[in-house]
Structures are given as structure tokens and as C-alpha cells.
Amino acid sequence: MQFIIYTDESEKSGKYYGNFFGGVLIRSTDFDNINIELNKKKEELNIHGEIKWQKVGEAYLDKYTQMMELFFDYVQQDKVKVRIMFTQNIIQATGLSKEHKENQYFLLYYQFFKHIFGFQYSNPLPTRPISLYILMDQLPDKKEKNERFKAFIYNLQNMDVFKRANLYFRSLDDIGEATSHDHILLQCLDVVLGAMEFKLNGKDQEKPEGKRVRGKRTRAKEKLYKYINKRIREIYPGFNVGDTTGGSSSSARWEHPYRHWKFIPTNREINKNYIPKNK
Predict the structure, then answer these.
(1) How would residue 274 be classed by pLDDT, with cut points 50, 70 and 90?
(2) pLDDT at 91
(3) 186 is in which domain, residue-wise?
(4) Is residue 175 part of a domain?
(5) Where are the beta strands (DSSP E) in 28-146?
(6) Do the domain assignments include residue 234?
(7) In a domain, 137, yes or no
């Protein structure tokens, strides 16, 4: 068997939250059927081109809601696992070197992939090896730096956590970059990730300059976010969008179909210039 993983990233520095990363994991045994059904739904809805959070508006609201309905049916069945990570601006990392600051994006991405799915709990039969296949949305840096990052991800298989779970990469080529236009699961992830960033950074309350009411696009996005939140709450009634999703044990990091992780650096301080969201 193989775990197929898509990853994406969003807002780096929002008003309240930043460094948004998202991941979708699907087992190879489920991949073909789910991929076919999601693409078929997209065709039935006459959605031409790429599904993206940025495109959400009144004209697309019903169609995107139907896409999310099918997508979250698979999440609720634990056939698709979704993970979202972000940082909160009130918490600042301290003691960062110049190198840390220059490579912050890749360092956070590395932590995201290493921990977000709870891989150490993913293989109940460790005598059976499971391969990993990763497709990341297009990385933003120079090719040399991107390739070095992929090598770091590839070497995760040498860590005890991955060895004990018998997880491995067949080759470095199994860590690649994807054009989201060609991958429906990555498109669905973009919508979920965008919805969470939209809510956490208060964009649902924004009004056009000089206007007394919110714009139609903002209201449409809020409706789609509320639908997504409703589906998550069917899984976790007490779900808190702005905090790490809880669990009765550490293995919940793998077992849960949907989770959030508010990343808190080990060395940190409170940002005195932070303006609380309710002000």
C-alpha cells in the first residue's frame, strides 16, 4: 500500500494568523475511485478550469458547496485525511539566527510534514511496509533550494519514528511538485485552506472602503466557510478553528480524519504589538 499526500500553503503573514500549510492524505486503495468521483462531480457541475478559494463568489457558491459536500463525505468516512497548520501572530519565535529567518518557510514546512499526520501511529502492521508519495504545490524558491528541501523530506524515512512504522520512499522521485490545475484533491485542499485563513484573519468581516456593508463575494465566502465548518463539527462537535484539535491520546494525530495544528515554537515570547482580533 501507499500513502499519497498532497500539500499546499497559503497566507504567510495575515492580520492575526500566518504560515498556513495544508495537507491531504489518501490511501492508494481509495485513490482511483475518489479521484474519479471528484472529477466527475466537477464535470457534472460544469466547473471549467481550476477550483480555487480565490474564485469563490455568488456565481460559484452552490457549485463549490456541492464539491465540498462530496469531499467532506470522504473526510467523514476517513478515506481522506485533512490537516491544517498555522501560527498566531501574538506568539513570536525568539533566538532565530539569520539562517533560520531566511529558511523559515522550509523549516516550518518540514515540521508540518514530519508531525502533522502522526505517521508513527499510521501502520498497525509494521511488518507490512507502506510507501509514501508526496506532491507539493509549486514551491516558491529557486530550484536548488527546492531540491535540497525535498532531500530533507526524503531523509525522514531514516528517523526511528518512520522506521518503526515501516514507512519509506521508493525513490527521491516520489517527492515532487504538482500543478494544482491537474489534481482535484489539491484543488479541494486549496478551498479548505483558504476558508480557514479567511475566517482566522477576520476577512469575513471586511467591508470595501467607503461602504457600510460587506461585499457579495465576502458574504459568499462566509457561507462556504460556514458549510465547511458545519461538516467538521459533524465529526467534532466542539471544534475550535483557531486552536490545535484535541484528542484522547497522541494516536489521534493519525486516527482523526480532520485536524488543525496551531504551531507554537519552543522558544517564544508574546508580541507586544499584537492587536487582538476583537478590537
Answers:
(1) confident
(2) 86
(3) 2-270
(4) yes
(5) 80-88, 91-93, 130-137
(6) yes
(7) yes
